[in-house]
Design brief:
Layout lengths: L1 H10 L15 H6 L1 E3 L9 E3 L9 E4 L2 E4 L3 E2 L2 E2 L5 E3 L6 E9 L4 E8 L14 E5 L35 E8 L2 E6 L2 E7 L3 H8 L16 E4 L6 E10 L2
Antiparallel strand pairs: 1-15, 2-7, 3-4, 4-15, 5-6, 7-14, 8-11, 8-15, 9-10, 9-14, 11-12, 12-13
Length: 239
């Protein structure tokens, strides 16, 4: 029965890929300074937010790091948000993601840890990961796939259907940020400006005093309770 459940979980994310090897760097990428944040076979380099361990619900299969939300005897495995071991400030992040039907998750950045914070979103802004067709958040402006969550909507919607891989990119450079989704620049903004402060004050984060105040921190993959998968997670530090 357990074997059957695992097969069913993975089948939700089955997608054939041809002509390229996942979770590797080309010779040119290595020369340019890219580094893999996911080796394709383990959770090395990741741990739970505010912890030195990682929940059993985060698994690796078929070259993807995924959140297994399958319930056994009415309970799912413990998971929670996971963060990079290292902190980053000026960088280019490239990451592939896919989400279950009607699913919700997010890529959160500049995340701070410590006793003052109980959740990653208390400090870190989020690139939304969502199935736009049927998740309730899709009905809310600034909550759709690729948005700077609750702050800026994408200029163009380029997200693919649930169960298909999307290629996302985030560039952070001296407080200036750009989001890309499937080859199209979709969001652009500057942190630490009067416009940024005003925008946060008009959002759901207005009661969180440290939200969006940091330009250096950890990268976080959110556990929003829905099945999500990631691969080809790589980063290049900008000088």
């Amino acid at each position: 029965m357990k074997r059957y459940l695992v097969v069913c979980v993975l089948s939700l994310f089955a997608l054939a890929t041809f002509g390229q090897k996942q979770n590797t760097l080309t010779a040119q990428e290595k020369k340019d300074g890219w580094k893999l944040l996911f080796d394709g076979t383990s959770t090395k380099g990741w741990r739970n937010f505010n912890s030195d361990k990682i929940g059993a619900g985060w698994k690796v299969a078929d070259g993807a790091l995924y959140l297994d939300t399958t319930k056994v005897n009415g309970k799912r495995l413990p998971a929670g948000d996971i963060v990079t071991v290292d902190e980053y400030e000026n960088y280019e992040l490239s990451i592939d993601w896919k989400i279950q039907a009607c699913g919700n998750s997010g890529i959160i950045f500049n995340v701070q840890e410590g006793k003052a914070y109980t959740a990653s979103y208390q400090t870190g802004p989020e690139m939304q990961v969502l199935d736009n067709t049927c998740h309730p958040d899709a009905k809310i402006i600034k909550h759709r796939a690729g948005d700077l969550y609750d702050l800026i909507s994408v200029s163009t919607e380029t997200v693919k259907p649930a169960g298909e891989w999307n290629q996302a990119k985030l560039i952070a450079n001296q407080g200036h940020y750009t989001f890309w989704l499937n080859g199209v620049k979709t969001v652009e903004f500057d942190m630490g400006t009067p416009a940024w402060t005003e925008m946060v004050a008009g959002s759901k984060f207005k009661t969180m005093p440290d939200f969006g105040k940091f330009t250096k921190g950890r990268i976080d993959l959110q556990d929003h309770g829905d099945m999500v998968a990631y691969r080809n997670i790589k980063i290049k530090v900008l000088k």
